[in-house]
Write a structure and sequence with these properties.
Number of domains: 2
CATH superfamily of the largest domain: von Willebrand factor, type A domain
CATH class of the largest domain: Alpha Beta
Number of strands: 13
Order of helices and strands: EHHHEEHEEHHEHEEEEEHEHEHH
CATH topology of the largest domain: Rossmann fold
Radius of gyration: 29 Å
Largest sheet: 6 strands, mixed
Length: 346
Amino acid sequence: MLRFAHIDILWGLLVIPVFILLFLLVSRWKKKAVASLGDKNVVRLMMPQVSFSRPWLKFIFFLIAYASLIVGMADPLLGSKTEEVKRKGADLMILLDVSNSMLSQDLAPNRLENAKQAIAQLIDKMHDDRIGIIVFAGQAYVQLPVTTDYSAAKLFLNTINTNMVPTQGTAIGAAIDLGMKSFDFKNGTGKAMIIITDGENHEDNAVEAATRAKSRDVVVNVVGVGSEAGAPIPVNGNDTKSGYRKDETGKEVISKLNEDMCKEIAAAGSGVYVRANNSNSGLSIVMDQIGKIQRKMYDSKTYKDYEDRFQFFLGITLVLLVVEFFISNRKNMRLSGLKLFEVKKS
């Protein structure tokens, strides 16, 4: 299994299209400059030592070297083998609301980022319990199947945003039903859900879904994010300079925490409801309740002996940069004068 120790560094790969664009612009400018001197073939005869193809070769070497350097700096780690281990724990499914209303900033920096930070802290405290993540808006999707790979859980958590679910809305009931399908009820471990939402459910009957989960001994807990006063929804995440979302009449849409709905869902699922704020996410209180559910032994595959592979990529970078350095923009006249395959007429 491959993972990166410093995955944020991979954002540096986004600079590659900028390099390509700049190179194309410079190449276009050079062509125009050459064309302004006269006929292309005549200009080539006047500059026999100038190579028009080598700059492209040098640029390709540079581009590959840069990409290899970024990957190497991200420190790729490779799990060389798996090991079957016995664990005693429970299954926990996080249901995270990613609708646009989660961009409201009544929690800093916004509701969604606040929730993601809390989940990351929760993952850091987990040991033998398994965790899965479902994201939902107008529809629900499994972001991470139930696993004990906490590093993978944090990796997938970092990628969550409001654009990953194309249909807007808040289908809490669909998320609960999908969570039930994602559980393995054959292993007999205790199971629980934590729904993190502002409670603006407009799509289905979430209370009925929580009741169905309860009938199969799955505890449904709810963490409400937001405030009763509410807050407007920025058009572009934390960028309030772009303005806020407006309704059909031109008024700003104010998203409020539907605390009554959250409490109903938690009550139907025999769980607890906690309201998050800037100082307390509420997940610690929920986890205290989850700690009381039954835990059983189960088998788990864990990757062991993760080895650094950055040396391989840094080696490629060094070799390519050295080769690029020794490639001249000028032709080697001695070599170009050799015509090995020319047939001489007698």
